[in-house]
Amino acid sequence: MWSFGRKSVLEGSEDEELLTFLGKGAELKGSLHVDGPTRVDGIIDGAVHVKGTLIIGKHAVIKGDVTAQTLVSAGNITGDVIARESVKLLAPCALMGSVQTPLLSVEEGVIISGTCDMMPASNGHEDLPIEEELLQQHEQFPATASQ
Q1: Is residue 79 within a helix (H) or strand (E), and if so which, with residue range?
Q2: Do residues 21 and 38 touch, judged by C-beta distance below 8 A?
Q3: Which end of the chain, N or C, is less surrounded by CB atoms within 10 Å?
Q4: What is the C-alpha to C-alpha distance for residues 123 and 8, in angstroms, rounded to an integer?
């Protein structure tokens, strides 16, 4: 709290004021939609959609898909992650699901079980969200006989 000029990545950035906070011990069942920077230290059983930076503390647990502009996580996520700008995973983060982002940073000690699709921030198809373009690319390849 009293950092005197030192700012941890988990405390947010200087250009964004923290608007929404779900503290340790708080539990939410259902989807969370926030238009602005958000920090989660509690438990969410449902999807999380943030227009801005989402910070997930080391005690947080999210069971659902996560979308954000930027994601910084040290907590547990069971679900797919889509971030338009970047994803930064800090130990002791555990992510069980896929990741779609143009920029991914993974600290030593992080556990990931899933796939990662890294697309450039400008995908050349401004009318299509990144995830829709990925689906179209995957549909171009025919299924093998074993499937």
Answers
A1: none
A2: yes
A3: N
A4: 31
Question: Which among 117, 67, 73 is positioned nearest to 94, based on CA atoms?
Answer: 73
Among residues 53, 102, 58, which one has the least CA distance to residue 77? 58
Q: Residue 72 corresponds to which tokens in the numbers above?
A: 């910084």
Q: How far apart are CA 75 and CA 138, in angstroms?
A: 30
| pTM for the model | 0.72
How far is residue 127's CA from residue 44's CA, in Å, rounded to a whole number? Answer: 31
From the list 82, 115, 83, 109, the residue with the least C-alpha distance to 96 is: 115
- Cα torsion 71, 77, 80, 86 to 10°: value is 20
Position 130, amino acid = I
The answer to whether residues 46 and 64 touch, using CB atoms and an 8 Å cutoff, is yes
SS3 6: coil
Kindly state the tokens that stand for 43. 């438990």
Q: Enter the tokens of residue 68.
A: 């954000």
Give the list of residues 6+ apart from residue 129 with CB closer than 8 angstroms, or none.
none
